[in-house]
């Protein structure tokens, strides 16, 4: 059931007298969206944000409201609601389904309406993924192709038939029409546990997908596994580092004066700071506004070996060496769908890093995070 009465109005609040930016965020209870929302709540400019989230459950909506967040009950299939919420936003941060073209179009329609009503050009930060880069390796080989977000012709060569690509192209087209500025973030394999008040409150999913799925399957078969030869390569990023890329773009999108704390001689180190921009000309949108989010890469075999060792150490496997999944196991554990696990998806986040994004975690932390994923799987 949709609560249209909870849609925020741009002119209806006195409690937020300092509000400058209306933000509509989707996926607040998810792994990525919840991590981004956590950063917004602790941001130095948080008192200038009016943040609205869309959630499925009224109980969770109540919890969000107690945290000072405008929460509307609905789903991503409520296209009219998505349009209405987007039409009231200066910035939409979309963190739900990278393949839902209908939802993306509804958000774009709302942003177009916002532009027509205000004369201002709103912004959209959309979450895609490097699944758009995958090949058909099936674990048999490592590709030499590495995509770079500064290589526009290379990005434009990606076929429209690739996963996520039709949505990405629709978003770029909207930017071309001039009523919205679009920024597309493409995470690769994301790892690490999400943390923060939303996780503590039971509002946010703290686990990723690819690594936890491989761990869960390994536990079920009592041995780590891989596809083909496990030779395929994916780039990776820690969830905490990924979230900081969203706030970097947000700070570049939203015009703001330095806060009193930022102007002081001794800013609190626990608070995020306005980033040092290394090359502002690289802050681009539309066809040039693709931002890979990576800080390392791994082969599937190396992940399987780390899972196998963690299981052996925990007494959950008698052999630490992983083995290839059989055809029956591929069907049993993965329903035959393995394209986001057995493919190559390699990229370089040169644009984000030259803008000042400084991810801290590397592939070494990916391997060490597997022990925690194993504990979650068997608990």
UniProtKB/TrEMBL annotation:
One of its GO terms (molecular function) is aldehyde dehydrogenase (NAD+) activity. Residues 20-97 form the NmrA-like domain. GO terms for cellular component: cytoplasm. It holds the Pfam family NmrA. It comes from the Eukaryota. Gene3D superfamilies: NAD(P)-binding Rossmann-like Domain. InterPro entries: NAD(P)-bd_dom_sf, NAD(P)-dependent_oxidoreduct, NmrA-like. This is NmrA-like domain-containing protein. It comes from Ephemerocybe angulata.
């Amino acid at each position: 059931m949709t609560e249209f009465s909870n849609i925020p109005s741009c002119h209806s609040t006195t409690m937020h007298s300092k509000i400058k930016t209306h933000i509509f965020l989707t996926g607040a209870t998810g792994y990525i969206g919840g991590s981004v929302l956590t950063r917004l709540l602790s941001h130095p400019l948080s008192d200038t944000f009016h943040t609205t989230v869309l959630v499925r459950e009224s109980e969770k909506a109540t919890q969000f409201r107690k945290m000072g967040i405008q929460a509307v009950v609905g789903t991503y299939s409520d296209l009219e609601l998505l349009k209405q919420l987007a039409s009231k936003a200066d910035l939409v941060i979309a963190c739900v389904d990278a393949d839902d073209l209908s939802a993306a179009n509804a958000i774009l329609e709302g942003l177009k309406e916002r532009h027509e009503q205000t004369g201002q050009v709103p912004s959209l930060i959309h979450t895609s993924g490097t699944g758009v880069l995958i090949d058909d390796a099936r674990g048999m080989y490592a590709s030499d192709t590495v995509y770079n977000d500064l290589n526009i012709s290379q990005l434009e060569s990606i076929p429209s038939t690739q996963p996520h690509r039709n949505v990405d192209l629709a978003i770029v087209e909207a930017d071309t029409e001039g009523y919205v500025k679009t920024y597309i973030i493409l995470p690769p394999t994301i790892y690490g546990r999400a943390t923060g008040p939303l996780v503590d409150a039971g509002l946010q999913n703290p686990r990723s997908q690819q690594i936890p799925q491989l761990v869960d399957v390994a536990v079920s078969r009592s041995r780590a596994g891989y596809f083909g030869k496990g030779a395929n390569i994916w780039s990776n990023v820690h969830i905490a580092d990924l979230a900081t890329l969203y706030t970097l773009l947000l700070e570049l999108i939203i015009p703001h004066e330095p806060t009193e704390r930022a102007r002081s001689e001794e800013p609190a180190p626990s608070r995020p700071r306005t980033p040092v921009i290394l090359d502002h000309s690289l802050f681009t949108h539309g066809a040039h506004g693709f931002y890979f989010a990576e800080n390392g890469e791994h082969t599937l075999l190396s992940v399987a070996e780390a899972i196998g060792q963690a299981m052996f150490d925990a007494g959950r496997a008698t052999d630490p060496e992983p083995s290839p999944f059989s055809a029956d196991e591929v069907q049993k554990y993965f329903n035959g769908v393995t394209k986001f696990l057995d493919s190559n998806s390699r990229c370089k986040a040169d644009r984000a890093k030259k803008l000042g994004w400084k991810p801290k975690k590397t592939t070494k932390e990916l391997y060490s995070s597997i022990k925690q994923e194993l504990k979650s799987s068997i608990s």
